[in-house]
Amino acid sequence: MAKTTADIFEQGMKTRRGILGDAHVDRAEAAKTDFDLPFQNLIIEGAWGSVWSDPAISRRERSMLTLALLAAMGNFEEIPMHVRATARTGASARDIQQAFQHVAIYCGVPKANHALKLAGTTLAEMTSDTHD
After folding, report:
1. Among 131, 119, 53, 124, which residue's Cα sits nearest to residue 91?
2. How far apart are CA 70 and CA 100, in angstroms?
3. What is the spatial distance between Cα 72 and Cα 131, in angstroms, rounded to a whole number?
4. Are 47 and 20 in contact (CB under 8 A)?
5. Is 91 in a helix, a strand, or coil?
């Protein structure tokens, strides 16, 4: 049976919450406007309902790919969010380092260096949050 748009959306929200956590998703949902609603639905259905929900590769691998692609394209704003998501995807600090080493070799040291700094700061915050 083919999945409906509603099924894909529902799966997307479930996956999104599983990766980013309820608090993050609740904040994002509360911030939605009529203007950005179509875009938000596109992300939920496309990124979370289709790509992140596909079992072909693990969430750990998807985290590593996502972080590498964000860094390679210079989309640094989302790196801390996806580093925090590694607590739920199983990607380790070593995995993050390895992803950014690939970025350095194939896309440029400055992008990888900046991404690594952001990841290091975020991982330190995550460690601090668990000890408070």
Report:
1. 119
2. 10
3. 32
4. no
5. coil
Residues 54-75: pLDDT tens digits? 999 999 999 999 999 999 999 9
* pTM of the predicted structure, to 2 decimals: 0.91
C-alpha to C-alpha distance for 105 and 101, rounded to whole angstroms? 6
DSSP H helical segments within the chain, as ranges? 5-20, 22-31, 37-42, 59-73, 79-89, 93-107, 109-131
* Spatial distance between the Cα atoms of 113 and 99, rounded to a whole number of angstroms: 12
- With bands split at pLDDT 50, 70 and 90, how would you rate the model's confidence at 129? confident
Length of the chain: 132
Summarised one tens digit per residue, pLDDT across range 4-23 is 989 999 999 999 999 999 99
